[in-house]
Write a structure and sequence with these properties.
This protein is α/β, with parallel strands linked by helices and 202 residues long. It folds into two domains: 49 residues, Helicase, Ruva Protein, domain 3; 126 residues, Dna Topoisomerase Vi A Subunit, Chain: A, domain 2. Helix content is 44%, strand content 12%. The protein contains eight helices and seven strands. Strand 3, helix 5 and strand 4 form a beta-alpha-beta unit. Helix 5 crosses helix 8. The longest helix has 17 residues. The radius of gyration is 21 Å and the shape is elongated. The chain starts with 5 loop residues before the first helix and ends with a strand. The structure holds zinc ion. The site of zinc ion has 8 residues, from helix 4.
Length: 202
Amino acid sequence: MAGLPKPLADLVGELSKLPGLGPKSALRAALTLLKWPEERTRGLGRSIHDLRDSLHICSGCAGLAESDPCPICADPRRSQESLCVVSEWDSLLALEETGLYKGRYLILGGLISPLDGVEPGSLEIERLQARLSEGQVGEVILALGTTLEAEATASYIKNLLERQYPGVRLTRLAQGIPLGAEVKYVDKETLRQSMVHRQELG
Ligand code: ZN
């Protein structure tokens, strides 16, 4: 943005890369920050700085947590027997909201989408294989939604299981989920129902 002092222009430039913030609202946010008491802006700066240091990728599920393993993976009351595979962390949060599922998770970090250049190699497939190779998982529940990318990912995992882990049962959330939907946007009751009535992936 022309005419701004450089430190301000730099901040506006960075802020405007955030989702939902264009250059105008980024400038408004930056000017608001300038009005804050110094201690508060320093606190915000520290929070942003510490974010990377204090968050870990859980070695069990690939989720974000303050500890590794994360509280879900470390919880002995949760079954090792079922593994729910989701695309992103917010799907896990949506499923946890239902309070119904008592197994473990694995976060793929996306869905297979050749058009967008997302191949299986860029997802957490190796972590999935590692979890299955431990031999405790008896059922993999796919909670990937009903988009084309979800279908592509489901059939990839189905092939993987058939080839390498034929003893593992593969199910997916029941089709109460509207076509084209992402798990994180499905309402709690539908999600709960679709978990109860999950289907074999035949
Ligand atoms: Zn975890």
